Amino acid sequence: MARTTTDHKEGRATVRTVYFTSKVLADGSHPFLICITKDRKRKYLATGEKLHPRYWNAEKGGDYRKSIRRSYPDPQRNDLINSLAGWEAKYDTAAGTFVSNDEQHTSADVARKAAEERKAARRVKVLAYVEEIAAGMVKRGQIGNAGVYRDLGNQLAKFIGAEAGAPEPPLGRGREQERAEWVRAHDVPFDRVNVAFCNEWEATLRATGAEEITLSLRFRTLRAVLNKAIGEGVAKREKYPFASNAEERHKFQVGKFDTTTSKRAISRAELERLKALAPATERQQLAKEVFLFSYYAGGINFVDLAQLRWRDLSQTEGAGLRLHYTRQKTGGKFSLRLLAPAEAIIERYRPFTYAGPDAYIFPILNAEKHRTALQVKNRSHKVLGQVNQDLKALATAATIETPLTTYVARHTMATILKRAGVSTAIISETMGHSSESVTAVYLDSFASDVVDSAFENLL
């Protein structure tokens, strides 16, 4: 039992994750345990996580963030790291509570307190937890990601309600209170989301005509929710329905969905025809220049392009303009020298949009009108639809068979760089295609001049 003391300042228990090689599981893997140390006494607790030794690099000092080999495929590697970090955080928080209250305690006290907190947290159910994640994203300005999670919550609610014979869940503005009451009445615990649940939901989605890419997105998002819930002690690892390695073939396989897409890149010859084309309207001119700027600026995503401000440009002596921006989707930071065609597009808009460093470069957003994250999202989504519509008309005029979208510019950039012999790693860096952890490694691995040199192949 923890005791309050005024005689001394209570020391803090240390919490760390241990790859416990002394125990070998049935599939040859070793478990990860949480080790709590207080006054030289240790207590080990199971996390439910495990890893085959071929994916563990003992030479990295035992820190799981470094020792789990990159050959362990993502997203499983990233999911495992996040789960272990969540376990550490729970016990470390419990240890910190004792220190804050200056209570004498043992390692067993820390374990017991964390268990009590996890037990209380498990009262949270699936739909409520998904909404909690989405609401947090809205507060952080991640409107697009919040929409993905809320869409997941809506689809899950329909499925859960149909299984229970309940009426359709209320949706739309002005019905938030009705929906909250519906969720309280029909929500399910995390234990309900098992392999059978996933198989049944997949069959239901397929019956509605959902395509493979939609199925992949739905289940990847659900998997992310469960990983977060396990890391926070809201759900139990024992009921986890998704396969984490080849030995778990009996579990639900998110990778089974065929997300291959039709040809998205256009050839250099088609690109030249688009460049030579004279748009019929100013709106088509914007669409053309958005496409070309994305191509010449490393495949910048439309959402990021729309939010570029004049302050994001810097003049480098003898090397023209340099663009600095943060990718909305991943938070990755990018810095690239603008090629001459991209710089020319920028300068074309300067007389019309420059009203100070905080003004937007492209005439998509208005700093005075679009102030909130939701206003920015809605305006960007509207203009993106117009741009893609106009790009298809330009493709017809330029005799390009591939239906043009802003994504095609991004894909074309990557394809042309690859055919020019630029390494996949550098292309991945320019596009921010990988997970945040992998992107961070790329950013540490390549100097800006290496990426700048690669862009020369786009001319």
UniProtKB/TrEMBL annotation:
Keywords: DNA recombination, DNA-binding
GO biological process, one term: DNA integration
CDD domains listed in its UniProt record: INTN1_C_like
GO molecular function: DNA binding
Residues of the Tyr recombinase domain: 261-456
Family: Belongs to the 'phage' integrase family.
Entry-linked PANTHER family: PHAGE INTEGRASE-RELATED, PROPHAGE INTEGRASE INTD-RELATED
Protein name: Site-specific recombinase XerD
UniProt lineage: Bacteria, Pseudomonadati, Bacteroidota, Cytophagia, Cytophagales
